Each structure stands twice: as C-alpha cells, then as structure tokens.
Amino acid sequence: MAEQGLGRGSFLNRFPYRIVLEPRLKQPPRWYPVFLSLLSVAIALLIGALILTIAGGDPWATYAYIAKASFGSLGVISDTLVKAIPLMLVGLACTLAFRMKLWNIGAEGQFFIGAFGASAVVLTPLLPETAPTWLYIATMVFFGALCGAIWGFIPGILKARFNVNEVISTLMMNYIAVSWNNYWIFAVWTEGGFQMSRMFPKNAWLPRLTDFAAQVPLFRGLTTHFGLVLALIAAVVVWLILYRSQWGYEIRLVGDNPRAAQYAGISIARNTVLVMMISGAIAGIAGMSEISGVVHRLQGAISPGYGFTGIIVAWLAKLNPFAIIPVSILFGALILAGREIQPSGIPKMMNGIILVTLIASDFLLRYHIRIVRREEAE
Amino acid sequence: MNLIIILQAGVATGTVLLFATLGGIFSERAGVMNLGMEGMMLIGAMSAFSVATRTGSPWLGVLVAMLAAGLISQVHAFISITLQADQVVSGLSLGFLATGISLVLGEGLSKAGTVTLIPTLTVPLLSQIPLIGPVFFTDQKLSVYLGYVLVPVAWYIINRTRPGLHLRAVGEYPAAADSLGVNVYALRYLYVFVGGLLAGLAGATISLAISPGWFSELTTAGQGWIAIGLVIFAQWDPLRAAFGSYVFGALRRLVLDIQGPMMLFGAPNPFYYNPYWGFFLEMLPYAFTIIVLVIGSREAIRKRLGAPTALGIPYIRGERGM
User: Out of A216, A307, B83, B210, which residue is the most buried by the measure of CB atoms under 10 Å away?
Assistant: First the structure.
C-alpha cells in the first residue's frame, strides 16, 4: 500500500522525503469528520475560483455576491430557507437509502411525482373546494408520499427480484416522471393552454410566516412555509428509524456488511423494497411541500435539480439526519443566489466540485498521511 | 414514414450510444464502473462544438473532445482506484462535476454561429446491397463508419490479444494478475481513460454529426445513462453492444418520427391526432432501458454469466480476497 502508484524506478524516489500512507487503526476523533467536510468545502471553493478565473470571471466577487444574496437580510434568509426545505427532505430521503448502500438517484423523479400526487388532490378534485386547510394538507402529504413511494417501489422490487442496478433504474424513472407530469400539465390540467395548472385555492396552501404578519409584524413578506416543520419532523423520524429502532439496525447492518446481515437472517430483498419506498415517500413529500408551499400550482419547472443536490447534501452531512438541516441551508443559499449568477452553470459546477473533494477526503478517514525521511523509512 | 429511413437514422443515432457503451465496456472490464458517462459525454459534446466553431475543423473538435473527456475521467480514476472510494459515489460525483464544467464553459455556445460538421459518405458497391446498403452504407456520417470498425476491433482486443487478456484479468481477479506482474493500478487508470476517450467521442458525435449544436444538458438527454444500461444488457461484449445500441437508436428515432404522418399503416395515425400522447412516447426509451436491464440481469443469472468479478471493488495490494 505504502508505495502504491510509484513504480520502483520512479524519479520520485530520488527525493529525500516520501509519503507514507498508514491505515488508521483507531476511530478518528468525533470532530475529525466535521473538520474534513469543512476542509473539502474550502478546497472546493478554491478549485471553483480557479475554474471561474479561467472562464474569465471574478471568483471572489461571485462568492461575495452569493453570501450577500442569500444571508444579507431577513428577507433573503427566509428565501434561503424556502430553497433549503426541499433539500432537507430530499437529503433525508437519500440518507435513509444510502445508509443501506442503496443508491437512490431517483429523488428528483420522486419529487416530481410527489408534486403530481399532491396536485391531483386539488385538481381532480378529491376534496371539496371548501375543505379546511388541515384536511387539505394532510391529504396532500398522504398522496404525495404515496406517489413517491410507488416511484421508489418499482426500482426497489426490480433490484430485489432481478438484481437490476438501482442507479440506472431510478435515473430512468426520473425522466419518466417528468414526461408524466408534462402530460398532465399540457393535456389535462392546463389553464387556458398555458403550461401550468390553475392556481390552488388558498386552503390548499401550506401556511407561511407572512400569513401571521397581523400577529407578528416582523413576519411581513417572509415566505418560509410550514414545509420547514415537515422537514424537521422528517429529520427526527429518519433519525429514530436509523438509530433507535430494530429496523434501522438492520438497515445499517445491510449497508455495512450485507453478508453478515444475511447470516443474521435479515431479508435484504424485503429491506430493499421497504427502504426504497420510504425514501421515495420522503422525496414525494418534498415535492408536495414545494407545490403547496411555494408554487401553488402544478407546472413544469418546479425543481432546479433538488433531487440531485439532495445527494450531495446527504453526503456532506455524512448521512447524519440532523446535520442535513444546516447543510441544506448552505446549498439552499447556493441555489437562491445561483439564479442570478452568470454563467448559469456555476451552482451546478460548484456542487460537483464540492462532491468530488468530499468523496476524495473520505480517504483521510481511513488513512494517515505521513511524510518521512527516506533513510529512516528504509 | 419509411422504415428504411427510420432504420438508417436509427443506426446514426445508435452510433452515439455505441461509442459510449464501448467505453463503458472497456472500463468495466478492468473492474471500474464509471457512472459519470453522461457528464463526460457533455464535456465531449461541448468541447467538440466549441473547438469546431472556433477553428472550423470538426476533426480537431473530435480530438479535443476525446482528450478532454479522457482527462476528466482521471478524476474518477484517482478517487476510485488510488483513494479507494466507492465507485458508485465517485462516478456520480464525476458526473456532477463534468456536467457543471461543461455548462459553465459552454455558456453562450448555443448561439455560436456556423460550424463545419463531420462529412457524410455513401460507400460505393456496399450501398447497392438491398436493405443493408441503404440502412448502413448510404449517406451516413463518417463517425458511423468508425463505429462499424470499432466494434470488431474492440472485440478482438478484448478477447484475442495479450493486452486484452491482461484487461480481463485485472477485472476478474486483480490479485492473480498482480502476482504475475501485471500492473493493476496502471491498467485500471488506462482503461478508465479509454472509457473517457470513447465517451468524448460519443459526445462529439452528437454535437458535430447526429444532432448538431449545443443545447446544454439536453444535448445528451440521458443517453449516457442509457449507455450504462446497455453495457449490462450487452454483458460486456462489444458485439452485443452494437446490436443493443442500433436497436435503441432506431427506437429513439421511431419515437420522434411516428408523430409526423397523418396516416399510419393505412389508418389514421393516433399519435398525429393526439399530440399529447407524445409525452408517453418520450418515456419509451427510458422505460425500455429498464426492461432491457431486467432481461440482461435475468439472462446473466440463468447463464451464470455476470459482471467482471472484481467490478466495483477497489484493489488494495496485500489485502486478502479481491
């Protein structure tokens, strides 16, 4: 291992120092993974700055702009939270699946289909126009979660039955979900030929802070909505499932050591289907919360890639349900500010760089890097 | 709607999938799954189009596209081979990175003016063969002919040459290969690079030949992912890859073309009179990929064929097992 990658005749051997990699024998201290995450984000920002400079931009002005546009005032902080809510839910959906090493890349599609399910409650309509808000919200959450769960069930059962690679099947389901939604938006629920449904009635909207401006004047104009509460509840639920239940123990065991799990009598097939369904359901609720809390109608462009950013969020949070919340807020800021940055691909590129440095840094969780003098090493 | 024309266009469209699938086969045969295919293709499509518009040479564009995609594939190689990260996560992250970079560098490229495309060619004599001639050898881009050449070459390299033997050994049983003096790490880097080259070629083929232009993420529209599915369907065999790619190409064309005519087989064309059915047609290639995966996986189980044994497993010298 120590000399991996360096051939015996390599010119590097002439340096008086050399790099030695040693497997870590002890668990690193608790602060170490957090430190690594921060370090890799910092490195990612530097790499991003380099690429931006090459592309002819001014990286520091861009970064300063992102910070100001997303945390500069109470209003924009609230907007950042609005962007963070779907990321929290999708990140939690990914966390649950990833913990079992099930690569659910289909959160984007589950988000869209969740939005469809929630919209169907209003537009079919399943409830009378006069139904109370709490009933609307409960029904919409239920149908959003149900549709998301169905979207997760299909790749889940295919994986369990036929060993179909879930990365590809969930990804294909994303494209299918978008086309499915488009059919309903264009053909069935279109409002006057436009590519959107009619506006939902007010009682199908998630309550927003600004709705309470009469009682708390500070809330005037703030659009943070009840989805935040849903996300926080989901974080607690995912944490309880993973770390305080027998089932969560099974999930983690399958993820860490599938063979041991099988010997212990745990059904991998059953857990695969169940985890994919719950994961899909949470992503579906994200779609519901976006539709009912922000957009208030079904239309095509409801996600700037929440489903994919959620993957990065889950990874940066090291699959810790509570760490998802602050990490989502950071990425929410990137999405919010990113809308006005040119070139428009910058937020996506930054996401990619952050994910790459993060995954590379995981290496340091398993290995020490030491630089030793050549004489003493040999 | 002429069947010959659809098949002809299908072969052209399928060529993109073919290059990408062959790239996937090379890197997976060496034991490295690269899920960043879509991103690498975007890098290829973007740099090919960008270079071709600036220099006027499509060939320079293709060359730069291949090198650029090959270069970025090494990010995945480093993280998954040297740093031993999970190949799924590492490949995904490469996909994000490459997509992002191609969007940033490709900004404004869609309005970049005229570009010289890869020329078309009709092969004399061969184009006279009934059915096969018009489908495969008439008015096809040069890239399509390159595809015909690459398939047997890839098959021969993998199955009949010494480097091919090393390639398979590294993917099936790296410890044994290592003990016989094969440099497992170097070969894995090399074949991830080859996979990148071919992904870049696939991207360049889109933007300079098959559907010319740069349309940001819509340029590839998920073809990289379909190619990864086809690798499994092809069971890591270039000949089956060719079959799968051309069938898929024809399907993609059919989905586009079936909405055109008013009459279909002597009856009113339902897709013409219900344009919204187009959304369901759009789903077909993706749904079909899933079906193809099911078929491929079932067949693999039945015939006891399978993925290269060491696929997805980092090789750590001196550790037991793989």
Answer: A307
